[in-house]
Design brief:
The chain is mostly helical and 120 residues long. It is 87% helix and 0% strand. The chain contains five helices and no strands. Helix 1 packs antiparallel against helix 5, helix 3 packs antiparallel against helix 4 and helix 4 packs antiparallel against helix 5. The longest helix is centred in the middle third of the chain and has 30 residues.
């Protein structure tokens, strides 16, 4: 189960790295605009906000990677903390922005957290 947990945590970290790239570097390009259906003008106006969100997603990814490489008990605690942050961010995003975020962010975080806790 430890291997499954590690893979799931790694996938959640990779997801958040992807979100970082999308929000910080691709927001005004077709890939970024199509995510929310923005036209070029709205993408330009919201780019600073998206870059800020992307940076936060990068911190989540970094914390999860740290949790994967750190020895226990630090690694376990970091994974639990950062996966909890992912879940809270996903629930908040679903409540305030788009319900898809619940499935795209909170659900993978919850599955990874469950696996980490079971593997313990």
């Amino acid at each position: 189960m430890e291997a499954v947990a590690g893979v799931l945590v790694g996938l959640v970290a990779a997801l958040h790295l992807y979100i970082l790239v999308l929000e910080m570097f691709l927001w005004q390009r077709k890939q970024g605009r199509s995510l929310h259906g923005f036209d070029a003008e709205l993408a330009l106006a919201t780019a600073p906000l998206a870059a800020n969100q992307g940076l936060y997603n990068g911190f989540l990814a970094a914390g999860l990677v740290w949790g994967l490489i750190a020895g226990d008990p630090t690694g376990f605690r970091a994974q639990v903390f950062f996966l909890s942050c992912v879940i809270v961010a996903g629930v908040y995003g679903a409540a305030t922005a788009n319900r898809r975020i619940l499935v795209a962010q909170a659900l993978p975080g919850a599955l990874a957290l469950a696996a980490v806790l079971i593997a313990r």
